[in-house]
Amino acid sequence: MSYEVMVGNKATAVGCKLARVKVAAVFPITPQTTITEYLSEIHASGDLPNFEFINAEGELSSQVIAQAAEATGARSFTCTSGPGLLYMHHPMQETASKRLPLVMAVVHRGVKSMQPDHSDLMSQQWQGWLHLYVENAQEILDTTIMAYKIAEDKRIRLPVAMGYDGYVLSYTAEPVEIPAQEDVDKFLPPYKPMPGIFPVSDKDDKWRDFEANPKTFGAGWGEGDPMKPWQMHNEAALNGETVIKEVFAEWGKKFGRTYGNGMIEQYRVEGADCVITAMGTIAGTAMAAIDKLWADGKKVGLVKIRSFLPFPRSDFQAIAKNVKAIGVFDRSCQPGMWGPVYHQMRSTLYDEAKKTPVIGFIGGLSGKEVRVADMYKIGEKTLKVAQGGKPEAPIQWV
Length: 398
Known about the structure:
Blueprint: E1 2-7, H1 8-18, E2 23-26, H2 33-45, E3 52-55, H3 59-71, E4 76-80, H4 82-87, H5 89-97, E5 103-108, H6 119-122, E6 130-133, H7 137-151, E7 160-165, E8 173-178, H8 181-187, H9 228-238, H10 240-255, E9 264-267, E10 274-278, H11 282-295, E11 300-305, E12 307-309, H12 313-320, E13 326-330, H13 340-349, E14 358-362, H14 372-386, E15 395-397
Helix pairs in contact: 1-2, 1-7, 3-5, 11-14
């Protein structure tokens, strides 16, 4: 174990090194660019044996190359931001449909602006990937490693996207604890592809032998039912809640750092009259606001959402039983449909016997600063509804 002051993008690269990634296929785009530079330096140094660094000609190509590398049985990685992610749209669905446990870092960059919001990754929520959101550089490093353990679990076998805010996190330096390689190796065993393209010798996995049992990926492998792959894919994604909680619990036990239960983190929720939600770096701002609210006698808690897909439905159903209102903060907006987190929350609580009011707030779009005072007001407005008042509007702009 060691410590280093590093920017968020370097934490991603170090996480890849500790995870013993075999192939990184990348194309630089601000504010993701320095991840590619750090990975290139790792490759040039020779510190990571058998590591291939591929500087692709574009984002679509980097996704396809990483997808193919993963299919051969190599633990692989890619990364992008904003428009680059939109350019990857088509092959991203192929990666998920082929059930390949690729890990991708998405360094948030707004679609209407160079500055960060969550519009890029939220636009890909139908692609079949798991989506994790992180708050700081330490969480980036840790989650990069854990993402592989989650993705490669036999109950999942799906790609994972890890999102974090560009500039304010990608280019901001802070102290990071780096776990020892031997400890990470015990936590994250070598990747055992399933299926893989190369012949295998393990008698228990003969069905993976392409030489003896050739298969088609994507289409035509639904055992006569073309919908079967979709059903299996959906079930695997829903398994994510169980696996994420298990992996994060194991990480906390081994390394002493915990992030709630992996799906959510609760802050001053016990005894609160209401809660607000936040994702990514906004969660840190929200924590400061929560402390001020409690100091002023206003009992408002915070639930930091770490996993958007799968959504922490069971966690929020339990929380809703003990609070009188939930304020949902979205850092993206689907025009005509409002915020995606708001809609997930409403869907999650729809069938509950206790009807807990849900108020939506949208802010931080195109990099607009979200201050402690803004989150304080969100807490106040949510508390007003918890005390029997009516919201100014179902959805409010911050």
